[in-house]
Design brief:
Oligomer: single chain
Radius of gyration: 20 Å
Order of helices and strands: EEHHHHHEEH
Shape: globular
Helix content: 55-70%
Length: 228
């Protein structure tokens, strides 16, 4: 069965009022609208996950059948397409997670100080991992998963060495791979990331389930004691 990230809403369901959580208006705009944008984006992310698994299934089926010229073309195209789709998936997970962290920073600041922060000090996975002061009880359970997204997305974006693993693909199910070389400095040791996609999506989905509970908690705090 293909894993999904459906903690915010079911993939095929129409967005409903039950999916919304009312959040404050701020100088950064409507936080309710930001929440709406985040949960809606996961429909597209789940569509991308479907595509990756479907593409991988066809790839494996053609790879194990008797070789012919047609299958050689199919395998070549699917291999290239799979790599691009996985990079796109990691990009959208990284972007969404950065926004989710920023949202928590603003809500936590509002809850603690009763005013909106003038600067979002922790607004990305990288900042969160460098400064682990934000919602430690929540994020500490997910640091390893968040570090994987951060490191792999940075390798895709910056590591010149990453193309050396461009011929890697999961045997039985989708994997994503990255080869990171910090600052493209050959004096440093490269790091290889082989990540089973199913296991990763299950972990990320668990993160989203807990995240929604955290956002609901901030809603309860802020609207039982409204910010002036």
């Amino acid at each position: 069965m293909i894993p999904k990230i459906e903690a915010f809403k079911k993939q095929r369901d129409i967005l409903n009022v039950k999916d919304m959580i009312r959040l404050p208006e701020t100088p950064y705009g409507s936080l309710t609208l930001k929440w709406f944008d985040i949960i809606q984006r996961f429909d597209s992310i789940n569509d991308k996950i479907d595509e990756i698994y479907y593409c991988h299934e066809i790839f494996v089926r053609n790879r194990t059948e008797e070789f012919n010229e047609y299958r050689q073309v199919v395998i070549g195209k699917l291999f290239s397409k799979s790599r691009c789709m996985i990079e796109e998936l990691i990009y959208w997970l990284r972007k969404s997670t950065d926004e989710m962290i920023s949202l928590v920073y603003i809500l936590d600041y509002l809850s603690t100080h009763k005013i909106c922060p003038e600067k979002i000090e922790i607004e990305s996975i990288g900042k969160l991992l460098m400064d682990k002061s934000l919602c430690v009880d929540f994020f500490s359970n997910h640091y390893d998963m968040l570090k994987t997204i951060n490191d792999v997305s940075n390798a895709y974006k910056h590591s010149f060495l990453n193309t050396e693993i461009s011929n890697h693909i999961g045997n039985d199910e989708p994997y994503f791979f990255a080869l990171s070389l910090s600052n493209n400095d050959l004096k440093k040791k490269p790091y290889f990331y082989p990540v089973e996609l199913t296991d990763f999506i299950i972990k990320y989905s668990g993160f989203c389930t807990s995240y929604k509970q955290l956002i609901q908690k901030y809603h309860n705090e802020l609207f039982s004691n409204p910010v002036q």
